[in-house]
Amino acid sequence: MGGAETVGIPDDSTPRTPDRLRRRPSRLLSQLTVRSDRLITDGLVQVDARKWHYAVLASLQEYGPGSQAELSSRSGIHRSDMVGVLNELAERGLVARVPDPEDRRRNVITISSRGRRHLCLLDETLDDLEGELLAPLSPSERDQLVRLLTRLLDHHTGAA
What we know:
Blueprint: H1 19-22, H2 25-45, H3 51-63, E1 66-67, H4 68-75, H5 79-91, E2 95-100, E3 103-111, H6 113-133, H7 139-157
Antiparallel strand pairs: 1-3, 2-3
């Protein structure tokens, strides 16, 4: 990863960062998000993938086939971006699009066997990248961090 200066973000590990900034959870989350996004994006490029590919394939694997609108809702990908993501996945043979027999105006998207294999590769890649991101934390601390972040996100999104 490049230095924080390259993106105009102060490196909070230096003594120059005021302590009151280092104690702000919102700032810490923001700083970590920048570094996490860079690490994950760069790592997925190495396996010719993007975060949105993973989100769609994971949704299809866990919940089964769905329309573009359903996939948008499940994955958090804006509807206007979903078509492009699905085009990329379909061109690679990772998903199939077929007209919905109940409504020919919409498509039903299904993960292919190749898509399932690719999802396994992406899981392994993300496991390694997240291991790097969370390296200073013990396994129990990692679990606790996920629980706390999930609780915060659920609270702010109205999820139960």
